[in-house]
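Budget justification aside, the reviewers requested a transparent look at the raw inputs and outputs of the sequence design task funded under Objective 1. We therefore reproduce one unedited record. The lines immediately below are the structure tokens for a 232-residue chain.
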């Protein structure tokens, strides 16, 4: 029997859902993605229904659920976490929280074959959520801890000078230090996290036995002030 994992994300201005089906070494992914600012609550479950219907899969057939656990929009993270927890609890299946920054790194690697990545999301209040990664053959290795920092406080691991920056945090490009800018060959600020990459990462974690009970998987905000007034 194939393994089936559903992933969903509402961590940014985008909203997405994806279903990955794995049988042996073969994987198939069905995904939906929309830029839907302030419409996540209305759009997320219809997206879930769409991917399940296209795959001709019922919720009861799912082996696991994954969600974008953050960092990102506080409101969006709560929407995704609540939806995913409800599904996993009702289905009595494992739940995985997937880093939005890691999913963004995997997306950039799979799409453009970048190897040394700085992922940064706009955290508002003059800060970015940021981490660095090395990627090879669809595998992502974290090089620095996820953090929320002012752009001028971001520093890159030594030894590499061909970093690529991806994510909405690079709309603040002029605020990064000259040293960081000189270490980057380019930066793309129009990529958003997607459930498709979260599905791939979720399947990886499921195979590694990293699934959690529904009540144990929680959003990761990085910033303690969760009363942020403007969702992405």
């Amino acid at each position: 029997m194939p393994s089936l994992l559903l992933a969903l994300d509402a961590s940014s201005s985008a909203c997405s859902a994806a279903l990955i089906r794995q049988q042996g070494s073969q994987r198939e992914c069905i995904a939906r993605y929309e830029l839907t600012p302030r419409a996540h609550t209305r759009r997320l479950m219809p997206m879930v229904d769409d991917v399940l219907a296209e795959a001709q899969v019922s919720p009861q057939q799912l082996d696991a659920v994954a969600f974008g656990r953050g960092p990102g929009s506080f409101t969006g993270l709560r929407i995704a976490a609540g939806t995913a927890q409800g599904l996993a609890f009702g289905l009595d299946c494992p739940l995985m929280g997937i880093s939005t920054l890691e999913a963004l790194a995997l997306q950039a690697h799979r799409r453009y074959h970048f190897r040394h990545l700085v992922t940064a999301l706009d955290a508002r209040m003059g800060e970015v959520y940021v981490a660095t990664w090395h990627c090879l053959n669809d595998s992502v290795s974290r090089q620095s801890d996820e953090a929320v920092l002012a752009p001028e406080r971001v520093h890159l691991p030594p030894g590499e000078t061909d970093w690529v920056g991806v994510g909405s945090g690079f709309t603040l490009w002029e605020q990064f230090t000259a040293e960081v800018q000189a270490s980057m060959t380019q930066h793309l600020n129009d990529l958003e996290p997607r459930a498709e990459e979260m599905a791939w990462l979720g399947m990886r974690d499921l195979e590694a036995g990293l699934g959690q009970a529904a009540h144990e998987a929680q959003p990761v905000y990085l910033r303690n002030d969760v009363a942020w007034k403007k969702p992405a």
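The chain has a mean pLDDT of 94. Residues 85 and 214 are 5 Å apart (CA to CA). Computational costs for records of this kind are itemized in the attached budget.
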